Every structure is written in structure tokens, then in C-alpha cells.
Amino acid sequence: MDFTYTIKRSAKRRKLTITVERDRSIIVHAPENTTDEKIEQVLKSKRQWIYEKIGHPQKYQDLPHAPGKEFVSGESALYLGRQYRIEVVNDGIEEVQFVQRFLIPAKYVKKDEALREWYIGKAKEKIVPRVKDYAHQLGVEVAMVKIVDNRYRWGSCTVNNNVNFNWRLIKAPMFVIDYVIVHELAHLIEANHTPRFWNIVRAQTPTMEKAKTWLKDNGQLLEEKI
């Protein structure tokens, strides 16, 4: 095999699946009793698909921090698909505030961490209720919704019907967030990316293609601190 991969076995898993993460790492999720030989056989049969995924424009390494871009007044940060000005405030506020611009208390030595916590709070506030609404529309049962720090996936679902979403999604437009939500929930109906799967997603999010294009063109921006 001319590529490396990581195997994750689980007693709860019934099917073997292959995932190519956005950092191009290859993860094999397999039932507990699957042999290494069987896994290698499946990987060989999926070789062309794996190469296509590795070469996909949405797969990339971390961007270096933009030169000269720091947490100072006059810079900007993404929120729901738009750039908003950052203003560092010396006194009068204790936490990050958003009033058509980001107000960040100067007391925070690591202002990126302060903004990160604000993003996570907003992701919980805005994404979690939408997941529940879409789950109701699709008729699926979701055990738990989590906002997580998963650098190389926008969303994921587990065999226990838990769904996870990357907090960085809150930087994207709402139509993109909705697409990622529906994408993960549709996997609770159809595990693989079959025509039926895409029909489910498209029916719930008519702007699916627009959202996929936005992520392809702008997804890497979501990884930046600002």
C-alpha cells in the first residue's frame, strides 16, 4: 500500500468505512473483529476513490497565520460569513461583545482565545437549535448535539446517533451551516453518499451546491484565528 492509514476498531460498528480527513489523513473505521488483511483488501479496492479524495481541493494542510494580521483595532474577524471590525477596548467591558463589530477587552493577553470562546458560545446558541429543528423535519432521532474542536471535519455523526459540529462553522454563512447540519443528519437515514443521500440533503437545503462551493472556496479561512 502506497499510502498510510489509521485503523479505529469498535465493537459497536457493523460496517467498515473509510474517511479521508481534510488534512488528507486516512481513517478506517472497522468492526472489532475485522482482520488487517480484510482492511487492506478493501483499501486496495477503494484505491482510486482514496486518491480522488486526497486530491480534492477541500483537503489541505493548516494555513500559516496571515503575516501582519494581529488582534489589534482595525483588523477584522469572520462571523456568519461576513468580516467585522475588531476594536480592542481598554476599559468598560469584561467580556467580548458584538455590536456590528467585535469589542475585545484589552485585558486579555491572548485575545484569540477570548474570541474563540465567544465563537463557541455563539455556535452552541445558533447551531444546536437548528440541528433539533432539522432533525424533526427529517424524522430522525438525535441522542446528543455537541459543538466540538475538530480541526479537520465540519461535522460528524456517531453510531450512537450523536452529532458533532466544528465550532468554526459559526464563521460561515447560515446557508452553509444548514447544509452541514442536514448533511450529518442525512447520514442517520443513509450511511453512505448514495444518490438517495444527496436527494435527502438537496430536498432540505436547495442551496446545497452553493454551500459546497462556498466551503471549497472559503473553508480554509475558517481555520484561521482571524
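That was protein one. Protein two is written in the same sequence-then-structure order:
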Amino acid sequence: MTDTDFETTQIEAAAFRRLIQHLMHERPEVQNIDLMIHAGFCRNCLSDWYREAAEQRGITMTRDEAREAVYGLPFAQWKAQHQREATPEQLAAFEAAQRKHSG
């Protein structure tokens, strides 16, 4: 790995940590379904990507461990504290977004 590659990796890691910090502490009220509707990914996606990246490097990680790394606490605890039931409007918007981007 060159110095440039190392620096790029450090910058990417810092940006990822900032995104996680933002979602955990500054915007925990933003619902995963809203992220899926507007951005096409959510915290669960991030945790899946995190686990996949670990596994590509030979690090075994469970789904729960990856989710805790992204959510900042066990998923069930985060869900109990922050996740609300999706509204009919959110569900309709999610379905519309899925149709729009799967075609």
C-alpha cells in the first residue's frame, strides 16, 4: 500500500466514523425507513457493509456485532429507544422508491 492509498483509507475511515457519529448522536430520530426512501440505504445496510468489509479482511463478525458498531448500542436497545412504527405514508413511499429503483 502506498502512502497515498494509506491516506485515502484514513480519510475514508474518518468520513465513515463521522457518518456513524451523525446518525447515532445527532440524528437518531431519523428512521431507517426514511433513509431507505430517500437514500436507498439505512443503518442496517451500513452494518451489513461493515461486516462484509471485516470478513473480506479475515475478521469474523456477527450481524449483531456489526449492528452494534453502527448503532452504538445493541440493536434491540436502539430499536426500543428510537424506532417508531412505520406510517402508511412511509410504507407507500418506500414501496414507490423500491419500484422506481428496481426497474
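The helical segments are 3-26, 32-39, 43-56, 63-71, 75-82, 88-102. Keep this in mind for the problem set.
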